[in-house]
Amino acid sequence: MARKASAEWYGDLRSGKGTMSGSSGAFSDLAFTFRTRFEDEPGTNPEELVAAAHAGCFSMAFSNELASAGLNPTSVKTTAAASLGPVDGGNAITRIELTSVAHVPGADEAKVREIGESAKAGCPISRSLTGDITLNLTVET
């Protein structure tokens, strides 16, 4: 199944602007600029959307793996921080730091951590990225 999104850019890199939309309608005409991507101006950028996708993918994969192991998570809350940096004369996402809190009543913390690492490695977004991916996991039992 293919999921689609689109982007349109107007003008040159530094003074131009663009929009991004998802074909599902979940987001439409999200504005972005050079300053929202490479500086600290408020607004979205492609890396933020990759981070959101990774946080969602990991949370789902982790919940699924916990349930498959017979554990019953009540919640998995994840934040992903995507870092953009220089690679081979260009820019790339060089690192994504996943910070997750898993509430798994009655579970063995070591087992939950093991499953978290497996989910980090196996979620489709993780498998699509080449940068360093770390997991900082808080387990609440």
Order of helices and strands: EEEHHEEHHE
Rg (CA only): 17 Å
| Annotated CATH architecture of the largest domain | 2-Layer Sandwich
The fourth-level CATH homologous superfamily of the largest domain is K homology (KH) domain
Q: Give the termini distance in whole angstroms.
A: 36 Å
Q: Using the coordinates shown, work out and report the CATH topology of the largest domain.
A: GMP Synthetase, Chain A, domain 3
Beta-strand portion reads 35-45%
Which overall shape is indicated by the principal axes computed on the Cα atoms? elongated
Quickly count the helices.
4
The largest sheet is:
3 strands, antiparallel
What is the residue-averaged pLDDT? 96
Unreliable residue runs: none
Describe the protein's architecture and organization:
- The mean pLDDT is 96.
- With 141 residues, the chain is an alpha+beta fold.
- The longest helix has 23 residues.
- A hairpin with a 7-residue loop joins strand 2 and strand 3.
- Helix 2 packs across helix 3.
- It has 4 helices and 6 strands.
- The chain has a 3-stranded antiparallel β-sheet with strand order 1-2-3.
- Helix content is 33%, strand content 37%.
- The radius of gyration is 17 Å and the shape is elongated.
- It folds into 2 domains: 34 residues, no CATH class; 95 residues, GMP Synthetase, Chain A, domain 3.
- The N and C termini lie far apart (36 Å).
What can be said about this structure in brief?
This protein has 141 residues and is of the alpha+beta class.
SSE map:
Layout: E1 5-10, E2 17-22, E3 30-33, H1 34-38, H2 46-68, E4 75-87, E5 90-103, H3 109-122, H4 124-128, E6 132-140
